[in-house]
Design goal:
187 residues, alpha+beta, Alpha-Beta Plaits, 2 domains, 5-stranded antiparallel sheet, 4-stranded antiparallel sheet, 6 helices, 9 strands, 38% strand
């Protein structure tokens, strides 16, 4: 073994390697939480985040099993890997929580969001709004003489891009559902 290989081996496996093994880089994670559909469960889940100062970027909740009385909460949050691990572990300790999955870590996931945009404008602004809606595959769900309401689905980035383009045209109001996500494949 050469001196260089020995030195590299000593650095990466040495007890004297004092570099921290954790990261302070914040990452965006999508968590899927299967819970019992009963009063107070959502409040406990949200309370876990707010009580510890964790931010929720997106939150969606719906019953997914009527007979089993189960709901699925999809939470998008950011934090260091250690923070995300802590959130996941703490969610798993809530009594009404059945399963917690970090879709970001477990593999590729399909994420979609629904948004409604009310855009006001006349003349060329109306034409431009319709042209952009066509490019983004947004549907017109309401129309008046001076406004449109568009429905668009896609990734959060697509929704953000559409909003950025509609602002100068006359974006009046926007409503977003938050992220719904499932892991890819048959699992």
């Amino acid at each position: 073994m050469s001196a260089l290989n020995i030195k590299q081996g000593a650095t990466s496996h040495s007890a004297y390697n004092l570099r921290p093994t954790f990261s302070d880089h914040e990452e965006r994670h999508t968590l899927a939480v299967l819970v019992e559909n009963e009063p107070g469960v959502l409040a406990r889940v949200i309370g876990l985040f707010s009580g510890r100062g964790y931010n929720i970027e997106s939150l969606t909740v719906a019953e997914v099993d009527h007979t089993g009385h189960l709901s699925r909460i999809t939470v998008v949050t950011t934090g260091t890997p250690q923070t995300i691990n802590q959130i996941t572990a703490q969610l798993g300790r809530i009594i009404s929580v059945r399963e917690v999955h970090d879709l970001t870590v477990e593999g590729r996931a399909v994420e979609r969001e629904l948004a409604l945009f009310k855009v006001a404008g006349k003349g060329e602004d109306r034409v431009e709004a319709l042209r952009l809606a066509d490019v983004f595959r947004a549907n017109v769900v309401d129309s008046t003489l001076d406004s449109f309401t568009f429905e668009i689905t896609g990734t959060s980035e697509k929704i953000d891009a559409f909003a950025d383009l509609m602002r100068p045209i006359g974006l009046v109001e926007m409503a977003r559902t938050g992220v719904a996500a499932l892991s890819r494949g048959s699992d």
